[in-house]
Design brief:
- The complex is a heterodimer of chains A (about 375) and B (about 290).
- With about 375 residues, chain A is an all-alpha fold.
- Chain A has helices spanning about 5, 15, 20-30, 50-70, 70-95, 105-125, 130-155, 165-175, 175-210, 215-230, 230-240, 245-270, 275-280, 285-320, 330-340, 345-370; strands spanning about 35-40, 40-45.
- In chain A, helix 9 (about 175-210) packs across helix 12, helix 9 (about 175-210) runs antiparallel to helix 14 and helix 15 packs antiparallel against helix 16.
- Chain B folds into 2 domains: about 5-105 and about 185-285, Rossmann fold (3-Layer(aba) Sandwich), CATH 3.40.50; about 115-180, no CATH class.
- Helix content of chain B is about 40%, strand content about 20%.
- Chain B is built from 9 helices and 9 strands.
- Chain B is globular.
- Classes of the chains: A mainly alpha (about 375), B alpha/beta (about 290).
- Bound molecules: adenosine-5'-triphosphate and magnesium ion (MG).
Chain lengths: ~375, ~290
């Protein structure tokens, strides 16, 4: 994208022709010769009475605008508009009642549009700030959703195997009250309590083990043992011990999160350099002030590592544990009962809630980490 | 880079606090006393004798430089004085106490070979760290930190983080941090090693002014003969394998008040020559 500045007269072959665009244009031209779909048994081409030509013209205009934009980034935004338009075409054709499964011209065209998106993302990923950290991942996720929607509907995948995202969203909206109750039971009650107890206990025992070396030596091998225990093994036992309600789920989560937190905290506490410790010693600092003023700050990246791993473990633990007994509410309960009733839309909606919750927790922790460890070499300048 | 006029600093220091000045009458004249001090590091292959039968007496108000080739045990000797390392044999006393007692009484300030700043603290809070540990009130902590940062020419950098500073600036912060403790004994391990010549001259001038104004006892490790002669009242020449003292050179032929031009004097040249001869002797032992 610095071609313009280094070569103002566009003399080199590289700038005279945009070979990337040529490589994208060739399959597009080939696609024009192939059909876009089938209506009532009749094969339709690009100019078979749909609005496909308008989309085509729009995309070409966007690409031309992109290629002649004075700044490469502006060009990328124009090309992005073209990509969006290209991916709207199959939705239009579906609305027209076409069967797209044999529309190879359309699919080739969409493949070319995806290549164009690749180029756009390459440019946008180089723009610092919000564009790189929020817009690029957001576009990536959106692209996956749109691709999923178009492919599932275009090839008429049965909804029982994989519903399109729009259908999952509709199920989410339709079942919102039930899903909210499940969320409250599983996340706000079981996961949060279990997570706080498990991580807190792991942290406190790590501090104790740091003072009492034999504890560390005895506990670390146990940690490997515990991480090898499958959730499905401990969950029924915990339900027997602690009953159907949140206590048993919290217990499963404590078992799952305790050792990762312990191990990460111990590793973090051992992370201070000798010279930093010598400095504290030269001030005649006691154990407590060395811990608070030196070793814990140094351990922060490790602590966050443990907390982030545990946020996903806790969610998985709670959902799986609910398979083995729960009051008639909860995300795991919902999945297990609705699968049995072949009510898959609500299952997918629950999965979506779980996925959003997991990434929300993880994201919040990552944000907190960025704020509290901005000094760490891995975070500087980001 | 600007430095405050050293003379202003000296006056400020002299008038600031009576307690900062040494009171020789009340304390013993000997600050560090080492007798037949030896230290052997037990390493995996074969033990390393870092110090062998070192005898050294440092009087109150002395400025002693340790000079010698890399690996001759300068840092080790300083660490033994600071109770960061236990000698294998021999005796050492700091102000008549064991090094541990001296450390617990926070009698010394130590400037390490590397800055050893904490990256999560701003420059100012790094300088305030020892004062926090000593439990000094917040206002006084801040005042002392500001004062010492000004002394090393870093006013205006209080809110920066160490990794936003150059290596030489970081080392100056670590000097300010040691000075903020206001110790009677200042142990410095190549504090100016990372600095350019001009900054080094400035800080050397500063250090000698500070030393004269406060009557602190200084033990200073360096690789530079000129720096050692300029600053010291006595120069200890060391030699490696095993680490030992080859020569102790008195610099009493130089005036106690040092200015940069004494470096041109014949006395200066004579002492520098003797130091160089001593260092050569240590090296020839190797061949
Ligand atoms: N922690 C340690 N374990 C084992 N050997 C060590 C240790 N620290 C220092 N040594 C050895 O002791 C000897 C003296 O080391 P020391 O650090 O005192 O040297 P130095 O004079 O300060 O050198 P330099 O000028 O390079 O800083 C060296 O041979 C070194 O290898
Ligand atoms: Mg050294």
């Amino acid at each position: 994208m610095s071609d313009l500045t280094t070569d103002p007269y566009r003399t080199s072959l590289r700038t005279a022709a945009d070979w990337g665009l040529v490589a994208i244009a060739l399959p597009t031209l080939a696609a024009l010769a192939l059909p876009v779909g089938v209506r009532n048994g009749a094969v339709l081409g690009w100019f078979g009475g749909t609005m496909a030509p308008l989309f085509l013209i729009g995309v070409v205009l966007a690409v031309v605008a992109g290629a002649s934009a004075p700044k490469r980034v502006w060009g990328a935004w124009a090309e992005l508009a073209g990509v969006a338009l290209a991916w709207l075409l199959p939705l239009h054709l579906l609305n027209e009642g076409l069967d797209l499964s044999a529309g190879w011209g359309l699919w080739l065209f969409l493949a070319a549009a995806t290549l164009l998106l690749w180029r756009v993302m390459g440019v946008l990923a180089g723009v610092p700030g919000w564009t790189r950290s929020v817009i690029v991942p957001g576009l990536f996720g959106l692209g996956l959703l749109v691709g999923w929607e178009v492919l599932v509907r275009g090839f008429q995948v049965p909804a029982i195997l994989l519903p399109p995202p729009s259908r999952i969203a509709a199920a989410l909206a339709a079942n919102a009250p039930v899903l909210w109750d499940d969320f409250r039971q599983t996340v706000l009650t079981s996961v949060l309590r279990g997570y706080v107890m498990g991580c807190g206990a792991g942290f406190l025992v790590a501090i104790l083990a740091d003072r009492v070396p034999f504890l560390a030596r005895g506990l670390l091998p146990l940690g490997n043992l515990a991480s090898a225990i499958p959730v499905v093994g401990i969950a029924p036992i915990m339900v027997m011990w602690f009953g159907f309600d949140w206590q048993s789920k919290a217990a499963v989560i404590v078992v799952m999160t305790f050792f990762p937190m312990l191990i990460n905290t111990l590793a973090g506490l051992g992370n201070s350099e000798r010279i930093q410790l010598d400095l504290m010693r030269s001030y005649a600092a006691g154990y407590g002030s060395t811990l608070v003023k030196l070793r814990l700050p140094n351990a922060l990246p490790f602590l966050f590592n443990g907390l982030k791993i545990n946020s996903t473990l806790a969610l998985i633990g709670a959902i799986v544990a609910e398979f083995f007994g729960t009051p008639v509410v909860g995300m795991g309960f919902r999945i297990s009962t609705e699968v049995a009733r072949m009510n898959l839309d609500i299952v997918w909606a629950t999965i979506a809630v779980a996925a959003l919750t997991g990434s929300g927790l993880y994201g919040a922790l990552a944000l907190l980490e960025r704020v509290t460890t901005a000094w760490h070499p891995s975070m500087r300048g980001r | 880079m600007t430095f405050p006029n050293p003379l202003d600093v000296r006056e400020a220091t002299a008038s600031r606090q009576g307690s900062d000045r040494a009171a020789p009458s009340a304390k013993s004249p000997v600050v560090v006393e080492a007798r037949k001090l030896s230290l052997v590091y037990p390493t995996a292959d074969k033990p390393v004798t870092a110090l062998s039968e070192v005898d050294l007496t440092i009087a109150r108000g002395d400025f002693v430089s340790l000079i010698g080739p890399s690996g001759c045990g300068k840092t080790t000797l300083l660490r033994v004085i600071a109770d960061l390392e236990r000698p294998t044999s021999g005796q050492i006393a700091i102000e008549g106490m064991t090094p541990e007692q001296a450390r617990l009484k926070r009698l010394y300030g130590y400037v390490f070979q590397a800055p050893a700043l904490y990256p999560w603290r701003t420059v100012e809070r790094n300088v305030m760290l020892p004062l926090e540990i000593m439990g000094i009130a917040r206002a006084e902590r801040q005042a002392r930190a500001r004062e010492q940062l000004e002394r090393v020419g870093l006013s205006g950098f209080e809110r920066k983080f160490p990794w936003q500073l150059s290596g030489g600036m970081q080392q100056r912060v670590s000097i300010a941090r040691a000075l903020a403790l206001q110790p009677d004994l200042l142990l410095m391990d190549e504090p100016f090693g990372a600095l350019d010549e001009i900054t080094r001259d400035h800080l050397n001038l500063h250090l000698t002014q500070l030393w004269r104004a406060t009557g602190k006892t200084c033990v200073f490790v360096t690789h530079s003969i000129a720096e050692a002669v300029f600053l010291s009242t006595r120069i200890v020449v060391m030699s490696p394998r095993p680490g030992r003292i080859l020569d102790v050179i008195d610099c009493n032929s130089l005036p106690r008040e040092r200015t940069l031009d004494i470096r041109e004097s014949p006395e200066f040249a004579a002492i520098a020559h003797r130091v160089r001869e001593g260092l050569k002797e240590g090296h020839s032992y190797d061949d």
